[in-house]
Amino acid sequence: MRAPLGRLLLLVSLLLGPVANLRAQLTFEFNYSLDTGFFSGANESRRLHLETVGSYVSQFLTATSLAGITAGGSNTWTAQFTSPSDPSTTHSVTNLSVAANTVVVYVGGASLGSSVLAQATLPGISASGESAWVSNTVYKRTEGPSAYTRASVAALSFNSSTAWFFDSTPLSNSSFAGQFDFFSVAAHELLHVLGFGDTRVGSGWDRNLFNGAFAGGKSVEEKSDTPFGVPLNAGRDHWATNTLSFSTRDGAVQETLMDPDIAAGVRKYLTSLDLRAMQDIGYPANFTAVPEPATFGAGAGAISLVWAWRRRGRRDQS
Ligand SMILES: [Zn+2]
Prior knowledge:
The protein is α+β, with helices and mostly antiparallel strands. It has helices at 5-16, 46-58, 131-138, 182-194, 217-222, 272-280, 293-299, and strands at 27-31, 76-83, 86-94, 102-110, 118-121, 124-128, 153-159, 164-165, 180-181, 209-210, 213-214, 230-231, 244-246, 253-255, 261-262, 315-316. It has a domain at 24-199 and 284-302 and 310-316. It has a four-stranded mixed β-sheet, covered by helices on one side. β2 and β3 (86-94) form a beta hairpin. Mean pLDDT is 86; it is low at 1-20 and 292-314. The structure holds zinc ion. Residues 188, 192, 238, 317-318 line the site of zinc ion.
C-alpha cells in the first residue's frame, strides 16, 4: 500500500523534527592525541579507568540536551586550551565536530608541582558565521534560547608525579594508604569540565554566584542553614573546604566531591550537593543513578574493569 507523498513527508518531518532536541545521557569523549605517556605505552590500561569514571559521572546525567556542533559554510569555530601534557603551551582545534550530548576531553599527564593532583582547563572559544549558530549552538549548545554557556571541549591533565591508586572495583571499599585516588580525582575534574566552578561571565556557575557564595536554588535547598548561598572557597570555584553532603552511593554523610582537596587514602563519590549544583548550572541530574557494582562494568560498554583509588595528605585537586 502506498502512502500519499504529502503525508509521508509530514511523517518524516515529525520523526526528524524532535530528534535534535532529544534528551540523552551525556557522553565524555576522551581524546588521547595529545597524551605523551600518562595514558599510553605501558600506561595504556589507565584509559579503561578513565573511561569508567566517565561512565560513572554520566550515569547521573541521563537527560542532557546539548546540541551537536558541526561547522560548515560560513560557520566556523576554534577552541584553544592548555595542552594537557605540557601546560606551558596551548593547543587549538578548529571546526571540531562535537556530537549531541557529548563533551570532548583532551587528556594527558604532566608534572603539575607538589600540591596539585590534576587540573581541568576550559577552552577559549571563538566562532563566526550565522549569529544564531554562534551564540546558541557553539556557546550554549542549544537550538533555542538558553541562559547558560555550556561545555563542548576541555583539557584535563593529571599529575604524572603523583602516586596514583587505580582501582578495578571503585564502588567497593578499598584500602590504599599513601596513594591518591584516581577515581575520585577524575570524577572531580569531569564536573569542572562541565562547568562546575567556571567563574567566567555567562557560565551557569557564574550566574549563580551571589556575594561570594553559590546561590543556585537546588543547592540552597539542601543547605537551608545558609539561605543566601552555599559557602565557597576563596577562588569561588569549589565548595568551601570540608563541606559535607550525602553520598549518592549509600546516603552516608560524606565530604563533597567538589570541595577543593582530597587526602591520600580517601575515596569520594558524588554527593547530592554536587549534583544539585549541576542542576543549578543547567544539567538535569539524576540522583538515583548509582548502579550496583555488578552492573557497573556493563554500563561502560566494552569496559569490563572497574577501579578505585585513594590517598592521604590533602592536596589540591584544582
Ligand atoms: Zn577542583
